Each structure stands twice: as structure tokens, then as C-alpha cells.
Amino acid sequence: MDLILENFFSQASGNYKGLIFGFVHVAIMIIGYYTGFSINRFLKILSNGYVAGIFGAALSHIFADIIACYLDPHLRTMIVGVVVGGIIPLFFIPIFEKFVAKSDRKFLEKKEEIS
Fold first, then answer.
1. How far apart are CA 70 and CA 21, in angstroms?
2. Residue span of the structural domain in which 87 resides
3. CA dist., res. 112 & res. 114, Å (int)
4. Which of 27, 58, 73, 108 has the lowest CB atom count within 10 Å?
5. pLDDT in tens, 29-76
6. Does 91 fall in a domain?
């Protein structure tokens, strides 16, 4: 499979590098959506619904990145960087939850008191 892909892409311009990654990444998301597979079901046990949704979406993208990078010969050497780059923003979720989500709730409560 690698030989076929390498021969095809060596004749094509550099604009097609990453084509397999993009195709596989989006295909995994679509297949997951239509099969009903959801990481959120497992995460709802641990947290409230919307945090589980955000975290589940991020984890599913990281999982799809791993598979897509492995299948794309041009990106195979970048798997670790792509995964680490996807994991780093997950550490911001608790910070956003603590400061941004609370400030929105306080704003809504004040708005309800005024009206």
C-alpha cells in the first residue's frame, strides 16, 4: 500500500501531501457519528454533560489524528507531534471551565435579577 501511495504522490505536486490524512480523519468522524459511537457516554459519568462533550470531541479528534497520520506516509513521522499538539489544549478545559463558564453564569444571573 505504501509503495502505491508513494508512487502516486511522487508524481503529483506537493499540494496533495496530507490528502490521505484529511480523508481518513474526516471519514473516522463521519463513521463515528453515523454508527453512534460516542466517547461522551463514558465521560458523562465523570463530569457534567457539556464538559464531557468538549473533552470527547477533542479525544476523538486525537484518536482520528493517530490513525490518519499512521496511514498517510507523508505524515507518519509526525504522529507524536500531532498527538502532543492535540493533547496540550485539553489542559485548558479546566481553566476555561473555572473562569470563563463561571463568569458567564454570573452574568446570566445578574441579567435575570435586573429583568
1. 8
2. 16-114
3. 5
4. 108
5. 888 777 766 666 666 655 666 777 777 788 888 888 999 999 888 888
6. yes
